[in-house]
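Handout, section B. The chain below has 142 residues.
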Amino acid sequence: MDIPAYTLWISEAQNDFEGGKVLQRSKRYNLAVFHFSQAAEKAVKGLLYLEGAKPWGHTILNLLVEYEKKGHAVPVAIKQHAQDLEKSYLDSRYPEVSLQLGPKDRYDRRSTAEARDKAKEVIDFVIKEKEALTKSGAAATP
C-alpha cells in the first residue's frame, strides 16, 4: 500500500480542483474545465499508486478500467463522468479541435459547473475507495 504516493497525487488533484474554482470565478471557463479534468485524472492515478500500480496515460476512463481489473467496482456514473471530462482534455486548450470556436469560447458558466461537479464526484469516489482500502488492508503492498 503506497500511501505516500497516494497522498502526493490526491494533494495535487485537490490543488488542481481549487485552481479550477479560482479560474471559474474569474470566468476563464476553458482553463477551469481543464483543471477540473486534471484533478480527476490525478486523483484516479493516486488510487492506482495506492494499489501498487504504475499508471500511465491521461485517459481517466482507462485508468478507472485499470482499477477495475484489480478487482474493484467503479460505478457507471463515475465512468461516465470520466468520459465527459476527457472531452475537455484537448477541447479546452487547442483551437484546431474546432476551427469554429476557440477554447475560450467553448465553455460557459453552466458547462464549467457541470465539469466541476463531475470532477468532484470522481475525487470523492477516490477518497472513499482509499478509506475502504486502508480500513480493510486490501490495497497491494509495493
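Note. The radius of gyration is 15 Å. Compare this with the example in section A.
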